[in-house]
Write a structure and sequence with these properties.
Elements: E1 4-10, E2 25-26, E3 29-30, H1 31-40, E4 46-50, H2 54-60, E5 67-70, H3 78-90, E6 98-103, H4 111-118, E7 126-131, E8 134-142, H5 146-152, H6 160-164, E9 169-172
Length: 193
């Protein structure tokens, strides 16, 4: 079985939300705690990328043994967090064949969805969860693809451009998780990005 690392992207400032989503309480815990706990149920190691108010998140959150990476360029978008995480995994002392990427603002993510995508792990793997035919998270990036993803990731696109140019296994996770992300506080009216 391939070794799969969990990579939780939690660095954003949450401009539309009004605060970093890593610090948002949801269901009795912080979103970052929930995301790390979900990843730990499936992956070893788990790395969490922090940026906005990183010290506050680090102090407030129980990160359950996850390795914390600081993204000093977090304001440039999700791509910088993805690069930070993959660079951290490149130097990881143990064997890691693939990274399972998930986002902090998806409280409906489950270990079952992560397991379904992680089942495709291999150094040359690319896989993405789908929900009713729509691509979402988690995204599985085999080690052989990390350099290409790092080179092409820009802004808030993450690995989207790289994935569009390569064959990707789509894993139906409909019913395994809720792919909804929290862009604004409950009851708030979304504003233009």
């Amino acid at each position: 079985m391939s070794a799969v690392a969990g990579l939780v992207l939690a660095a954003g400032g949450g401009r539309r939300y009004g605060m970093p989503k890593a610090l948002v309480e949801y269901g009795g815990c912080l979103l970052v705690e929930r995301a790390v706990r979900t990843a730990r149920a499936v992956c070893d190691p788990v790395l969490v990328v922090l940026g906005a108010q990183a010290v506050d998140v680090w102090r407030a959150a129980d990160l359950d043994g996850a390795t914390v990476l600081a993204n000093k360029d977090w304001e440039t978008g999700m791509a910088s967090s993805l690069r930070t995480g993959l660079d951290g995994l490149r130097g990881w002392p143990g064997r890691v064949d693939a990274a399972l990427v998930t986002l902090v603002d998806m409280p409906g993510m489950t270990p079952e969805a992560l397991r379904a995508v992680a089942a495709h792990a291999a150094p040359d793997a690319l896989a993405v969860a789908t929900y009713d035919g729509v691509r979402g998270h988690p995204v599985l990036l085999g080690r052989d693809h990390w350099s290409g993803v790092v080179e092409t990731a820009t802004g808030d696109e993450g690995a989207r451009r790289y994935l569009a140019a390569h064959q990707v296994t789509q894993v139906d996770c409909t019913g395994l998780a809720d792919p909804t992300d929290l862009d604004v506080p409950p009851g708030a009216v979304p504003s233009a990005p």
